[in-house]
Structure formats: C-alpha cells, structure tokens
Amino acid sequence: MEVKKAVIPAAGLGTRFLPATKAQPKEMLPIVDTPTIQYIVEEAVMSGIEDLIIVTGRHKRAIEDHFDKHLELELALERKGKHGMLETVQDISNLINVHYVRQKEAKGLGHAILCAKTFVGNEPFAVLLGDDIVRAKKPVTKQLIEAFAEKQTTVIGVQEVEDEVVHKYGIVDYSSSDEDLYKIRNLVEKPSLEEAPSNIAILGRYIITPEIFDILEDTPPGKGNEIQLTDALQTLMEQEEMYAQAFSGKRYDIGNKLGFLEATVEFALARDDIREDFKKYLIEFLQQDTDMLEEIAVAE
C-alpha cells in the first residue's frame, strides 16, 4: 500500500495567540512572509502526497482563499510587471489538489481526523499537525512514509526531548528498537518525568492505517471531554503492530510564542534576500546598551 493522501487538522481556535487569532486562523500567522500552514502543505507535496484534505472550522475561510486562485491579484501583478510576485501567487494555488471539510464542533483531534473518513477511504494516510514545522533535508512525512513502506503498519513521528519538557508530550513506551525505528508497546499522554517510560515524544506527524476510523467512531470522549487520537491509537495497537520513527531535522514548536519567534528568526536568517540585513540588525540590537533593553522591559 502506498501513502498518497494526507489530512491536516486546522479547526483549532488558536487561543494561545490571542488577540492575533481573534479574527484570523492561527494557521495563517506568517513566518516571515509565508503562512505556517503553507510550510505544512509544502512538506506534504515534497513527500509525494497527491491529495490533501484540510479539516477546518468556523472563521477559517482565509485558509481556503490562500490556496485558491486570486484572478484579480494575478491580473494586477501582471499589469504592473511584477512577474516574480505573480509566479509566487500562482505557485501557491498550483501546489496540490486541496479539499476541505468542516469540523462543526470542537470535539478534539480524533474527531477532526474522523471528519476525513470519506475522503481517505480504505487507504493508509498521513496526518500533519500544524503546530510543528521541521526543517530537514528529507521531509519528515517522507521519512515516515519510507518506514511505512517497510512495515506496512501505523508509524508515528517522534524525537527525543529534554527531561524538563517530557510532561508536555505524548511519550512512547517501546519494547525494541532498530536504530531510529521503535516498536511501540504503549503510549502515555503527558506523564510526569517520574512516570515517563522514555523521553521519546510524539511530535505531530503520523502515517495511519484506515482501521483507525472504525475505532474513532467508537472512542468515547476522553481528556477535556474530547475524542483523543491517542486513545484510538491505543486501541489500534491491539489489532496491529505500531512503530515510532525518530525523524531527523530541526523542529520548531510554533504552537507556543517562543517557538514561533525562534522559527521566524531562523527562517529569516536562512533567506538569501534578507539574511545579511537582518543579521546586521540583530547584532547591532544585541550590542546596544543594557539600559535600553531594561527600559523596554519596564515599558512592557
């Protein structure tokens, strides 16, 4: 079985980025000049995904508009001779065939994925969560697809995390490992450091077999009175083996403000068009008097 379809859940309210997300989707917040969700879609495309569904919610129309054609804008750019910008705009709408389904109620990640059942059908599929962006030579989803091609069963993307943040993640309990591929024995949701079976954390990328849908339909609400994907995966493990692929690449947790700022700075420094000017600004700023920095802190 090949993995050619992907699901991107994007129905969350983005409360951690209020007030910026009061009137716009958190997935449209830009890193430099590119919405975060575009990085996720590009990863899917570079991984060989051919069909993509984005699970949206209320007030998420901007996502659909972003990946749609904008004829008026294209004509205006063409008339003004801004061919580089025109090509950029056209490339966005031509990235991939994007479908949409609305999650009408906020019932959790598991329910959001269940909303894509008709689209996915009886095929294995990728899930890419928008809170994690990874810069890697080989896209993370492609790394997981290659592991799936070998094992033909559900594969979860993971990385090691520091002890002090173990309690923020789902943690993998594994029975054996083959280099970077772990055979999963159990999944523990946000354990204390003392209770954690490892520091191998689940980080927002999955290849899942279609059997998950029947399980999700029968999964009762769990933590937060929501249908949890982790609970359904636990049940799926009773039916099939499950693996965790430790992927390579620099991960940015853009679900929190610090991670978002780190990504913004590092992505800007990787850009040929602004790298030198931005680097010069940062150096000059950091070399300014400590008194000035203290004044900013007081003003805040």
Q: Overview of this structure, please?
A:
By secondary structure, the protein is an alpha/beta fold. It has one domain (5-254): Spore Coat Polysaccharide Biosynthesis Protein SpsA, Chain A, CATH 3.90.550. Helices cover 36% and strands 23% of the residues. The chain is built from 12 helices and 13 strands. The protein has helices at residues 36-46, 61-67, 71-79, 83-93, 109-114, 117-120, 140-151, 212-217, 229-236, 257-269, 275-286, 290-299; strands at 5-9, 30-31, 34-35, 51-56, 97-102, 125-128, 132-135, 155-160, 170-178, 181-189, 200-208, 243-246, 250-253. Strands 5-4-1-6-11-8-12-10-9 form a 9-stranded mixed sheet. Strands 2-3 form a two-stranded antiparallel sheet. A two-stranded antiparallel sheet has the order 7-13. α3 packs antiparallel against α4. The radius of gyration is 21 Å and the shape is globular.
The level 1 CATH classification is Alpha Beta
User: Remind me, CATH topology?
Assistant: Spore Coat Polysaccharide Biosynthesis Protein SpsA, Chain A
In quaternary terms, these chains amount to: single chain
Tally of individual domains: 1
Overall morphology: globular
CATH superfamily, by name, is Spore Coat Polysaccharide Biosynthesis Protein SpsA, Chain A
Radius of gyration, in angstroms, nearest whole number: 21 Å
Beta-strand portion reads: 15-25%
In spatial order, strands of the major sheet run 5-4-1-6-11-8-12-10-9
Q: Roughly how much helix do the residues carry, as a percent range?
A: 25-40%
**Annotation, overall tally of beta strands:** 13
Order of helices and strands: EEEHEHHHEHHEEHEEEEHHEEHHH
Average of per-residue pLDDT values: 86
Distance between the termini: 55 Å
Broad structural category: alpha/beta
Largest sheet: 9 strands, mixed
Q: What CATH architecture label applies?
A: Alpha-Beta Complex
Low-confidence stretches: none
